[in-house]
Fold Quinol monooxygenase YgiN.
Amino acid sequence: MTATPNGYVTVIWQTRAKPGKEAELKAFITAAVTPSRNDPGNIDYEAHEVEGRPGAFVIYERWENRECLDAHLSAPRMNELVPQMLKLIDGSIEDGISLLRPFRPVR
């Protein structure tokens, strides 16, 4: 992942709960939102549940730059959270990550 020309980084993370773990994953994500929003360099951190698809979640994140995102991902709490999350999600964390690169129409 690289930063956009103006420096900020936008990440979309999509995941699905393992069968029977939907409520537990939603609670887990809910508890992780505030600490992530408080990480240095966070611009926006929003968790969403996909309407009509129980157990499907999307997190939208924006960071001031790649260094802030990297610091978030390597925060000490992640060493504890990642193994817990892997027990709740179907697939890997990496498979659900997309970096968005903004563009605008030419005027």
